[in-house]
Amino acid sequence: MASSAPAAAITQQRDTANSLTEDDLRRLYELMALAKACDEKAWTLHRQGRISFVAPCRGHEAAQVGSAYALRPGQDVVFTYYRDIAVGLTLGMDLPNMFLSLFGKEALVNGGSRHMPWHLCHTGLKLMPATSVVATQIPQAAGAALAAKYRNDDSVTIVYFGDGATSEGDFHEALNWAAIHRLPLVFLCENNGYAISTPVSRQMSVTSVADRAAGYGVPGHIVDGSDPLAVYGATAEAVARARRGGGPTLLDAHMRRLRAHTSDDDNRRYMTPEQIEELRKHDPVDEFRQKLIRRGALTQEAAQHLDDTIREAIDQAVEMAEAAPEPDVASLATEVFGVAAGQLPPASL
Amino acid sequence: MPTFLEAIREGLRQEMERDQRVILLGEDLGEGGVFRATEGLVERFGRERVIDSPLAESSIVGVSIGASLNGLVPVPEIQFADYIHPAMNQLVNEAAKIRYLSLGTFHCPITVRMPFGGGVHGGPFHSQCVESMFLGIPGLKIVIPSTATDAKALLLSAIRDPDPVLFFEHKYLYRRQRADALPNEPLPLGVAQVRREGKDLTIVSYGAMVHVALAAAEAASREGVAVEVVDLRTLCPLDRETVLASVRKTSKALVLYEANRTGGAGAEVAALIAEEAFEDLDGPVVRLAPPDVHFPFNSTLEQAYLPTSDSVLAAIRKLAAY
Questions:
Q1: Does A330 touch chain B if contact means CB atoms closer than 8 Å?
Q2: CB-CB neighbors (< 8 A) of A112 in chain B
Q3: According to DSSP H, which parts of chain A are helical?
Q4: What is the ipTM of this complex?
Q5: What is the pLDDT of residues A292-331, one digit of tens each?
Q6: Is A221 a catalytic residue?
Q7: pTM of the predicted protein model
Q8: Alpha carbons A101 and A321: distance in angstroms, whole number
Q9: Confidence band for A5, pLDDT divided at 50, 70 and 90
């Protein structure tokens, strides 16, 4: 199919950043503020010894919210990695289950007490199960897109990964599959410049992840990953292109990781005090808030009210999750296999 | 009389006819595959369902996993089991864990077909038995048929199973094993088969070694030793009951397999017997397997590496006299 074909199916959708209403802008901000507040609460809980682990999303909120906002929740297929809570929140994951997952308690989503905190998984939202393994989700996303193309449904698959993942073979193999089969797939690299402590300059000789796409015949674009509108616009365009049969796109969203890699990492070991101080000046959530206030889409009072509401909802979720019972040890051996030894599988799955 | 290879092809064809969600992907499949297992399938089902993959095993499995999560039932082929290693991450860290880590809200119905095994003068990279590496990994089923009949029936079951199945096809058996007629119904996974009954000694085996065991058992019978041969058919699930029932009857057990001696099915079966049937034993549980060396190319060395009916008969004599 020609990529210039009119995209009739998407005219009713938010296909460019320009089409966003003020309600959309406020919603984008609200989701970013929510993700930031969740992250800050998690970091505090970890420092207080109340949770054992968190991979922060601070600095990634704009890219995660902006891109996920361009998707149809429950219809488009989403593969995330371990830093993507804002993607989940944007698609509609609820705070109680998110905090149950953070505390490693039994939850209805994210693998409950079995999985690492905030490794997203939700059937209704087509959030495919995430592991901690780097880049494995990328060929899986190609497979999901292949299935959509095979069925001729109009879903688009998006896959999130960090810049470090682009050193893995799975990233390259997946780009190749996507290109050969012209898959409805959007690759979204959350490029914060560091694979834990290793800067991009020691991960690759090309200047950007976007450059890597050219070798596979896939368009690659650098996007300002700190600007939710830029990411939304680029993702909406890539999604629309994929939906009309135009094939995959790689978006290289540049952003800053405002914290260490995870709660177990200390970025003071590999960043100078000046570098860390510089990070503090670039909070995409604060920047977008100021932008909306300047534009008149948001007032200080409304923003303050929103912060209070979010804080209250998070506190409630934390209280509930912390008090939730430990999992039943009898559940340890469940869900290893769907069919017991000696049994025949059902006639149809 | 259809061969083992034709049994595989017919199993694939039957499931593809039955279920539109079944797709095949792997290297050179469209041309029939290097062993001809998929011959004619692209003509019948088209290139959308019989996909020539890039030469990249990790993504053959990774793409299959993702397609399964989004509603398809992929049957990827790894051209030789020796080349599964690049896909270990996808199998062990991903496919095996999906059901467990998602509380059963997602599952991964893929069947990874892998031609494997020696005796075909394939040398070090086209002969290996890699199944031992997957033993003890929760979430992966391991199927290793020894006959053409089982090959088809177990393949139907594997494809219909809602979880990842590693389906090992012994290359030596592809054109040497034949069935009178192929079954159209699946066999449950986890049910071993007693291939020959005997009262004096049990050989537990699987894959091509089952036939070596049967030949040795026939020879032993002429010496007055009645050997029972248990074909495991699947290493996971392991049919503990059939193994234990046989050993309780014969009191002596020999585990025969083609993977390297250390850390293989022999260790697991011997441990099972030691734990559960110690009081019934009248001799040590014996492992008979290739030594812990690499698979050699030279035919003379290959014959020395693999267990033979002669070496099995010698082991039978020794254990029977214990």
A1: no
A2: 103
A3: 22-47, 61-68, 85-91, 95-102, 137-151, 169-180, 209-214, 228-243, 273-280, 284-295, 300-323
A4: 0.96
A5: 999 999 999 999 999 999 999 999 999 999 999 999 999 9
A6: no
A7: 0.96
A8: 8
A9: very low
Q: Which amino acid is at B240?
A: R
Query: Does domain A7-324 correspond to CATH entry 3.90.780.10?
Result: no
Mutation for testing the B interface, residue in A115, A150, A154, A187 having most B CBs under 10 Å? A150
pLDDT at A6 over 90: no
Q: Do B101 and A121 touch (CB under 8 A)?
A: yes
Interface of A with B in 61-120 (CB under 8 A): 77, 79, 109, 111-112, 114-115, 119
What is B110-152 written as a DSSP string? Answer: -EEEEEE-SSSS--TTSS---GGGGTT-TT-EEE---SHHHHH
State the best of A78, A177, A182, A348 to mutate against chain B, taking most chain B CBs within 10 Å: A177
Mean pLDDT of all residues in B292-318: 97
Extents of the domains making up chain A: 7-324
The per-type count for chain A, helices as H runs and strands as E runs, is: 11, 8
Residues B57-69 pLDDT 10s = 999 999 999 999 9
pLDDT tens-digit readout, A83-112? 999 999 999 999 999 999 999 999 888 888
Q: C-alpha angle with apex B141: B16 to B116, nearest 5 degrees?
A: 75
B68: which chain A residues are within 8 Å (Cβ-Cβ)? 143
B162: chain A residues, CB-CB within 8 Å: 338-339, 345, 349
